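stage 2 :: seqdesign
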C-alpha cells in the first residue's frame, strides 16, 4: 500500500507557509534538546563528585577529573548559550564573546551553589525521619536533583539567558515530577518531601528553612491582560513564602500579592489566595466520616462485636 509520500510532503510544505509560529526556518540553530541532559548530568557531577559517575572518584584523581569536566563543559555550555542568545531578536555580532563570558562567570558560581545544596541536604536529613544518610538523600531523593538544577538554571535566568534555563528545569521536571521554574528565588535549607506534583511558579520568592510536601502548588491566581486581551508578561503573579514555613500535601497557594508569613503552617488540601500572618496555622475544619460495614450492605451478617 503506497503512502503517497510526495502528496504528504506537498501538504506539509504548504502548511509550513500557512501556519506560522511553530516553524523555525532560516534562523540560527536553537539550543539542542539532546545536549541539555548531558549538560545537566555534567554539572551534577561537579556539584556532587563521586555520586553521578560510574567510576570511583578518589582524592588522588579528583583534581584532574574536575579540570577535564570543566574543559568539556566550557565548550558545550558556550555552544548552547550562544544558540540561546542568538534566539533573541537583538542578538549582536558579539554574542559568542558574551556567551563565553557568561559561561565562565557561571562556572565560577559552582562553589557557592554547592554551599547552598549542602543546606538542602541537611534540611532533608533533619526533616525526614526515614533518611539514614546524606548519601541516601543525594542518590535517591528527587528533590535534591530538582533543586540543584533549579539553582543552576536560576543563575542563568537572572543573567538574561533565554531558553536554556527553562530547558534545564524541564529536564529535571521530567525526571523527578517536581516543576521548579528557573525564575523562582529560593533560600537555603529547602526541602521537598516526596516531591511528586510540586509546582513553583516563576515569580515565587521562597525564604530559608521552607518545607513543601508533594502536590503543593505555588501558582498564579489570574493574569493581567493588556488592551488587546494579551497576557502581560513579567509581572509578579506568584506568592511569597517566609522563612521556616511548612506546607503540607496538595495545598494550593495562589497570587502575586499573597504572602505566607514566617513560621506559618499550611495544612493539607488548603486552598489560599490571601496572605497568612506569621506563626499562623491554616487547616481545613473538622470533617465527618461515615463508617459502614460492606458485608451488611450486601445482605451478609456482620460479625459479632467483641464485648
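stage 2 :: out
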Amino acid at each position: 500500500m503506497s503512502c503517497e509520500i510526495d502528496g504528504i510532503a506537498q501538504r506539509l510544505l504548504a502548511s509550513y507557509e500557512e501556519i506560522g509560529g511553530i516553524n523555525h526556518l532560516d534562523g540560527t540553530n536553537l539550543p539542542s534538546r539532546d545536549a541539555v541532559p548531558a549538560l545537566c548530568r555534567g554539572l551534577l557531577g561537579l556539584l556532587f563528585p563521586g555520586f553521578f559517575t560510574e567510576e570511583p572518584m578518589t582524592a588522588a584523581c579528583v583534581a584532574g577529573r574536575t579540570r577535564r569536566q570543566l574543559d568539556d563543559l566550557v565548550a558545550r555550555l558556550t555552544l548552547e548559550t550562544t544558540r540561546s542568545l542568538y534566539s533573541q531578536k537583538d542578538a549582536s555580532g558579539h554574542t559568542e564573546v558574551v556567551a563565553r563570558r557568561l559561561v565562565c562567570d557561571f562556572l565560577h558560581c559552582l562553589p557557592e551553589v554547592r554551599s547552598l545544596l549542602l543546606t538542602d541536604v541537611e534540611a532533608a536529613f533533619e526533616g525526614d525521619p526515614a533518611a539514614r544518610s546524606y548519601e541516601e538523600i543525594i542518590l535517591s531523593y528527587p528533590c535534591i536533583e530538582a533543586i540543584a538544577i533549579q539553582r543552576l538554571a536560576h543563575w542563568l535566568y537572572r543573567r538574561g539567558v533565554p531558553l536554556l534555563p527553562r530547558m534545564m528545569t524541564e529536564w529535571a521536571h521530567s525526571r523527578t515530577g517536581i516543576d521548579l521554574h528557573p525564575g523562582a528565588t529560593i533560600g537555603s535549607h529547602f526541602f521537598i518531601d516526596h516531591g511528586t506534583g510540586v509546582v513553583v511558579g516563576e515569580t515565587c520568592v521562597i525564604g530559608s528553612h521552607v518545607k513543601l510536601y508533594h502536590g503543593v502548588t505555588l501558582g498564579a491566581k489570574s493574569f493581567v491582560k493588556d488592551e488587546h486581551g494579551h497576557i502581560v508578561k513579567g509581572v509578579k503573579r506568584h506568592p511569597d513564602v517566609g522563612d521556616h514555613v511548612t506546607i503540607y500535601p496538595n495545598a494550593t497557594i495562589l497570587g502575586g500579592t499573597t504572602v505566607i508569613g514566617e513560621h506559618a503552617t499550611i495544612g493539607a488540601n488548603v486552598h489560599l489566595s490571601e496572605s497568612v500572618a506569621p506563626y499562623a496555622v491554616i487547616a481545613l475544619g473538622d470533617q465527618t466520616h461515615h463508617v459502614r460495614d460492606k458485608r451488611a450492605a450486601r445482605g451478609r451478617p456482620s460479625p459479632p462485636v467483641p464485648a
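stage 3 :: structure notes
- The first helix runs from residue 5 to 18.
- The CA atoms of residues 294 and 300 lie 9 Å apart.
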